[in-house]
Amino acid sequence: MVPKKVFFTKGVGRHKERLASFELALRDAGIEKFNLVSVSSILPPNCKIISKEKGLQELKPGEIIYCVIARTETNENNRLIASSIGCAVPSDSNAYGYLSEHHGFGDTEQKAGDYAEDLAASMLATTLGLEFDSDKAWNEREQEYKASGKIIRTRNITQSAQGKEGTWTTVIAVAVLVEENGEKQIQQISTQQIPVQQTPIQQEQSKTQPTNQISQNQKLS
Q1: For residues 158 and 84, is the Cβ–Cβ distance under 8 A?
Q2: CATH code that applies to domain 5-191
Q3: How far is CA 89 from CA 6, 117, 123, 147, 193, in A?
Q4: What's the rounded Cα separation, in Å, for the pair 10 and 158?
Q5: How many other C-beta atoms can be found within 10 angstroms of the C-beta atom of residue 155?
Q6: 51-72 pLDDT, tens digit each
Q7: What residue spans define the domains of the chain?
Q8: 96 close to 42: Cβ distance less than 8 angstroms
Q9: In this structure, are strands 80-90 and 151-162 parallel, antiparallel, or unpaired?
Q10: pLDDT, tens digit, for every residue of 103-117?
Q11: Phi, psi of 137 (to 5 degrees)
Q12: Among 49-53, 82-86, 209-213, which is the least confidently predicted range?
């Protein structure tokens, strides 16, 4: 299974219970009705970035979906938290890209987003043989990466919030990987029991089996 599409979403949730605040963040992101499986951060080759609305239309409640998720939570008053997903897409559509996740404390939304985007681009750059200088600012490295012609696009999605005393606050940022409908149908067919086709001899035996059984019953009587 190699996902062909990806969409990005984010959310924030607040509740006195920690788990409930996560559930509310999922609802805010629009993905609470799915069974999420967290995976590591590779953007598959030829993976198309689509809108959240289009992505949700291709998913069904209860479906197991794979995602790269960043999750940060706090119950401290006024503590600033942020979750961010960065994305770096190579110019060669047949090559894989990178998705990064960042869980920040004390970071503004802008700072957390830039960090996640920088992280994804830097990881991709090292696989493409591009020079990596950690002392340079992200804006400078971004221009160098894109000028190389090997990295065509970078982006991030970030959710930040301030904590409140006595309440759990959870922020999430998610890259949801989507299978093609055709691949789903193939998987469903492969899991169904396919009847074995009988040979002509087996078919003939099946036809005569009831007659033989009747003859045996008559002899016994």
Answers
A1: yes
A2: 3.50.20.10
A3: 12, 11, 11, 14, 40
A4: 7
A5: 16
A6: 999 999 999 999 999 999 999 9
A7: 5-191
A8: yes
A9: antiparallel
A10: 999 999 999 999 999
A11: -70, 155
A12: 209-213
